[in-house]
Specification:
The complex is a heterodimer of chains A (254) and B (262).
Chain A (H helix, E strand, L loop, with lengths): L5 E11 L4 E12 L4 E5 L6 H8 L7 E6 L12 E3 L11 H5 L1 H6 L3 H11 L18 H14 L4 E5 L7 H18 L2 E5 L3 H7 L2 E5 L6 E6 L14 H13 L5
Parallel strand pairs in A: 3-7, 3-8, 5-6, 6-7
Antiparallel strand pairs in A: 1-2, 1-4, 8-9
Chain B lengths: L2 H4 L1 H21 L9 H10 L1 H35 L1 H14 L4 H12 L3 H25 L3 H9 L4 H39 L4 H10 L3 H29 L6 H10 L3
The chains are: A alpha/beta (254), B mainly alpha (262).
């Protein structure tokens, strides 16, 4: 069997405040296999973002360990492609110079990484916008630019934290399709946080449901819907069943 | 820039004020050493042009040196307080208190310490100008978005890279606001230094003219000081617009226009 891209073993994390401590994650274990698309859902406060912050090395677990490509790395920062909730483009850099930031950090010469970025721009619907500042872009385009930045970091695994959360419903659907397309075309592994159950089912091979405070794995659900997926699948009874099951699991009255 | 909206109204108002000034003098019949007419002032300036040119040169030199030193001191203090939080806590109140001390009281002390000449003038400029620079730069450095810093850390960036890519650029707009304030103060600060310390610049020209009851020449010095301040301000503003194209990008200013900020 292949080595998991990410393996999370018995990870717990508690935050200590002045008056009380908040257990964010409790005994989390799961594996992400190469090429897999995993979505993680859970109410706010279920420690979804904490999980990502642990994976990308911004936080250290209190207990447990995180393996990347089968090893416990000395320093996890920079090993995974990470995209936080907001696009967080640097306003003083053009689109082109924004998307090469990870490569710049890795010490790759600017000329080379700019060249590579220019080749990828059309795939991300950003051609002819390379010299614009982020302030000139629409919300959807900024999100795509942030994704391209994550993409160009060249990491085989991407951690996307509610990347479409701030977008309107139509733009969001458009970007979901597009993400699935580039994911299949370029064969990356994706871990995707969302609080939208339909989005979770539509995108994933597997959905992980986290409970709230402390975040525990409540359920893992394999999604066996055929690929490539189209938005019309939402009307499919099988899709409806899965969504219903996950909503019930999340404690929503259906 | 919109000419009709931004340039014409202030110019028109200035012209109206000058005409009004002329008629106030003519109608009131005040003697010219109480209030000279605009023409008296222009004539006085022309007659003392050689003296004025030297004075402007001396003042500008002191202003320039003082500004450079203030820049080094201000940005240096800001960087220090940023790298070392204890310095921030210790220095900030002292910096604020230092601005409440009367510069007119300090200037004579500077002369006692450093003698007559350009040094006290330069130090007066430094004392006036380092404060807005230090405070605005320190505020700018603090204001950088912590989420951006986290993102870069998650990408594996080290402290130096974070400084270069996030902290410094995000501090620049605030730094430039401080610099605009500083250059506006700087010429006035230099003339105060000269007034007290006797370095042969605009301040001394003003002092001598006052002592000779040459009110028209006092006005000349006053206007030239303002003119120099405004020119320096515009110069910094121009540099700022070139250095921060993203901050003044078209879309952004258009947005401001729509919101009525302009």
């Amino acid at each position: 069997m292949a080595t998991p891209r990410i393996e999370i073993r018995n990870v717990s994390k508690t935050f200590f405040g002045v008056h009380h401590s908040v257990p964010a994650l409790e005994n989390i274990s799961f594996k992400v296999m190469p090429g897999e698309f995993i979505t993680i859902i859970g109410a706010s406060g279920s420690g979804k973002s904490t999980l990502f912050n642990l994976c990308v090395g911004l936080l250290e677990p209190d207990e447990g360990e995180i393996l990347i490509d089968g090893k416990i790395p000395e320093k996890r920062a920079g090993m995974l492609g990470y995209m936080p909730q907001h696009d967080l483009l640097l306003p003083w850099r053009s689109v082109l110079d924004n998307v090469i930031i990870p490569q710049e950090i890795q010490g790759i010469p600017k000329k080379e990484s700019r060249q590579k970025a220019l080749e990828m721009l059309p795939h991300f619907g950003l051609e002819t916008f390379e010299n614009e500042y982020p302030s000139a872009l629409s919300g959807g385009m900024r999100q795509r630019a942030a994704l391209l930045r994550t993409w160009l970091a060249g990491r085989s695994t991407l951690c996307l934290d509610e990347p479409f959360g701030a977008l309107d419903a139509l733009t969001r659907k458009e970007l979901q399709n597009w993400l699935l397309k580039v994911w299949q075309e370029f064969e990356r592994t994706v871990m995707f946080i969302t609080h939208d159950v339909e989005e979770a089912v539509y995108l994933a091979d597997r959905v992980i449901v986290l409970s709230a405070r402390p975040g525990k794995i409540k359920r893992e659900l394999k999604i066996d819907l055929p690929r490539p997926r189209r938005q019309r699948i939402i009307a499919d009874p099988e899709f409806g069943k899965l969504v219903r099951e996950l909503l019930m699991e999340s404690g929503v009255d259906v | 820039m919109n000419w009709r909206k931004n340039i014409v109204p202030p110019i028109a108002l200035i012209v109206i004020l000058i005409i009004g000034w002329y008629f106030v003098v003519k109608i009131s019949g005040w003697s010219s050493f109480i209030l000279p007419t605009p023409f008296d002032v222009i004539q006085a300036g022309w007659e003392t042009r050689d003296l004025l040119l030297d004075a402007v040169g001396t003042t500008l030199l002191a202003t320039g040196i003082g500004l450079i030193l203030a820049l080094i001191a201000g940005v240096g203090i800001a960087a220090l307080t940023d790298f070392w939080p204890l310095a921030h806590q210790a220095l900030y109140p002292i910096l604020v208190v230092s601005q409440t001390i009367q510069i007119l009281a300090i200037a004579p002390i500077l002369i006692i310490w450093f003698g007559f000449g350009m040094t006290p003038t330069i130090l007066t400029v430094v004392l006036f100008c380092f404060f807005p620079l230090a405070v605005s730069t320190a505020d700018g450095l603090i204001s950088s978005n912590p989420e951006l810093i986290s993102l870069l850390r998650a990408m594996g960036a080290n402290k130096k890279q974070i400084w270069r890519m996030v902290r410094m650029p995000s501090a620049l707009p605030s730094f430039f606001s401080g610099l605009r304030l500083a250059v506006t103060y700087s010429v006035v600060a230099a003339t105060i230094g000269e007034w007290v310390g006797g370095s042969p610049g605009l301040g001394l020209y003003m002092l001598r003219s006052k002592n000779a009851l040459a009110t028209d020449q006092v006005f000349v010095a006053m206007f030239i000081t303002s003119l120099l301040s405004v020119t320096l301000f515009m110069l910094v503003y121009g540099i700022e617009r070139l250095a921060l194209p993203w901050y003044y990008s078209k879309q952004r200013t258009e947005q401001w226009d729509e919101l009525g900020i302009y």
